[in-house]
Specification:
The chain has 237 residues and is mainly alpha-helical. Helices cover 63% and strands 10% of the residues. It has two domains: 158 residues, Ribonuclease iii, N-terminal Endonuclease Domain, Chain A (Orthogonal Bundle), CATH 1.10.1520; 70 residues, Double Stranded RNA Binding Domain.
Length: 237
């Protein structure tokens, strides 16, 4: 890559990460999806999956270490809190907030993929960037990056109850508030059988409370339940 092509990556590092990469190719690789390598085999040979593997381990260790040292809840609850912090939606959203999405190199086909596929790519890239920071700067700087972009969301996770199973939590809330059990209804199924996207609505007393989409009905139900919980939370303010 030319200097003009690499400049945005170094600018991102300075502005969003707070330092320059000595090995800038490490950051560029972290933001390179496998599909891009497949389209540019003559000029690009490495994608971000190895860095993602490393970053995933660093991310889990840093979050686990923080929860263990700062909270006395039993293992099961801490595990649920950690899962809420490091799930695809959470780290994908952190990537969007960091603004690296335009720098992620992927194929033309992936750019036109589903929202879920895009979210997964961004989440994987966040883990890969974490791995790159760990290699470039060491554990402490990687931990600081995770604390700023992931652990900082813990209060919101606890306030909204999003660490709990959304469907079970919604059933508790709807029965307490409205004395009703939620009902899930399929709104739409699109795509071929091997790549289908389901959209469902959750209703309480025949009132639409939330809509969710996902690659399975179970995922869509969880998304819809979470949207309904947020609606209940707004109602209570």
């Amino acid at each position: 890559m030319s200097g003009m092509q690499t400049a945005p990556y170094q600018e991102f590092a300075k502005e969003k990460l707070g330092f320059e990469f000595k090995d800038l190719q490490l950051l560029i690789t972290a933001l390179t999806h496998r599909s891009y390598v497949n389209e540019h085999k003559k000029s690009v040979s490495e994608h971000n999956e190895r860095l993602e593997f490393l970053g995933d381990a660093v991310l889990e260790l840093v979050v686990t270490d923080y929860l263990y040292k700062n909270h006395s809840e039993p293992e099961g609850i801490l595990t649920s809190w950690r899962a809420a912090l490091v799930r695809t939606e959470s780290i994908g959203a952190a990537g969007v907030a960091l603004g690296y999405e335009p720098l992620v190199r992927m194929s033309r086909g992936e750019k036109q993929g589903s929202e879920r596929a895009r979210q997964q790519i961004l989440a994987n890239a966040f883990e890969a960037v974490t791995g790159a920071i760990y290699l470039e700067r060491g554990y402490d700087d990687a931990a600081a990056f995770i604390a700023k972009n992931i652990i900082s969301k813990l209060d919101n996770v606890l306030d909204t109850g999003s660490w709990r199973d959304a469907k079970s939590h919604l059933q508790e809330v709807s029965q307490r508030v409205d004395n009703q059990t939620p009902q899930y209804r399929v709104h739409e199924e699109v795509g071929p059988d091997h790549d289908k996207i389901f959209t469902l609505g959750v209703y309480v007393n025949n009132n639409l409370m939330g809509i969710g989409s996902g690659p399975s009905k179970q995922v869509a139900q969880q998304q819809a339940a979470q949207a309904a919980l947020e609606k209940y939370a707004q109602r209570g303010k």
